[in-house]
Amino acid sequence: MDAFASLPDLAVRTLGGSVVAASDESFEEKENLINPWPPAFHPETFGPKGQEYDGWETARRRPGDDGELGHDWAIVRLGLPGVIRGVVVDTAWFKGNFPPHASVEACAVDGHPSPAELADARWVEIVPRSALGGDAAHAFAVDVPRRFTHVRLNIHPDGGVARLRVHGEVVPDPRLLRGLTVDLAALENGARVVGCSNMFYSAPDNMLFPGLARNQAEGWETARRREPGNDWAIVRLAAPGVVRLAEIDTTNLKFNAPGHVSLAALDARAGDLDDPAAWHELLGRTRVQPDGRHRFRLEDDREITHVRLDVHPDGGLARLRLYGDLAPEGERLLTRRWNELAGP
């Protein structure tokens, strides 16, 4: 597995991504590119435009009057702007109609630009024109240490792509967090799960996604624990801060929620994650109910950088919210990183 594959997909629809424009979508819609589920295929499902595919597919290109063939493209607004570490161009199920080559560009534009405004943006090539095969996922590492808000997939000259995955590190805008009570555990604010005991059914980062989980698969769920002890996950907060309120959400988990939960905290600037003595209790072992949201006011004013969630003995959570305030150093760290990754 590529090293970047464990990073969030900054473009996926469940994190707010959107395909804002495309040169052509004669056969299949551009929006399919960022669907969260794996591409599917059902043979002999013919619509008025031919065989149906779960992806984006353009018409066959013919040379124009000038003899030029040109190429097709699609622009994706990242749901979570950040540093792109890798891109996956997946041609699953496109066997005779895949593009032979593709390239990817990226840009950073503040605000909410229109497709016309994006056409005039300063685009940077992050994946050079590269060969593609049919019915395969093509992974390309990216080494451009800058924050981007949009990517443009170019296919040469035409064809079908099932999915575009854009893996990277979230870089939140500090101007939207400074001086406010925020969710310090939100993926969109830059938090990540940096360790967990078990992710048999689903990844723990799911707990940090925006919005409400629609089903069990959109949360974190462990296997049934048969040995002593309990399962756990460690969250690196968006930045150093003080957590004032915790929300433990077991929605949709009716028969596989944990019986109890607890929270511990640590300031990694003063202690080591592997040192049990460096952690202090944030929320003692507390009973939770299935399929519901639980809120707990926390009476601890210490600045922290990490929170350990323990589920007793196992089970799943839909969402974990840790509302609080950024510490002054947290604000400085976010601002410094934003400035360093802004690019020219």
Q: Can you tell me about this structure?
A:
The chain is mainly β. The chain folds into two domains: 3-170, Galactose-binding domain-like (Jelly Rolls, Sandwich), CATH 2.60.120; 174-330, Galactose-binding domain-like (Jelly Rolls, Sandwich). Helices cover 5% and strands 40% of the residues. It contains two helices and 21 strands. It has helices at residues 115-119, 328-340; strands at residues 18-22, 46-47, 50-51, 56-57, 72-90, 101-107, 124-131, 137-141, 147-156, 160-161, 163-170, 181-183, 192-196, 220-221, 231-249, 260-266, 280-287, 293-297, 304-312, 316-317, 319-326. Strands 12, 13, 15, 16, 17, 18, 19 and 21 form an eight-stranded antiparallel β-sheet that branches. Strand 2 (46-47) and strand 3 form a beta hairpin. The chain is globular. The two termini are 33 Å apart. The model has no long low-confidence stretch (mean pLDDT 95).
How is the topology of this model organized?
Layout: E1 18-22, E2 46-47, E3 50-51, E4 56-57, E5 72-90, E6 101-107, H1 115-119, E7 124-131, E8 137-141, E9 147-156, E10 160-161, E11 163-170, E12 181-183, E13 192-196, E14 220-221, E15 231-249, E16 260-266, E17 280-287, E18 293-297, E19 304-312, E20 316-317, E21 319-326, H2 328-340
Antiparallel strand pairs: 1-5, 2-3, 4-10, 5-8, 5-9, 5-11, 6-7, 6-9, 12-21, 13-15, 14-20, 15-18, 15-19, 15-21, 16-17, 16-19
Pathway: Nitrogen metabolism; (S)-allantoin degradation; (S)-ureidoglycolate from allantoate (aminidohydrolase route): step 1/1
EC number: 3.5.3.4
Enzyme class: hydrolase
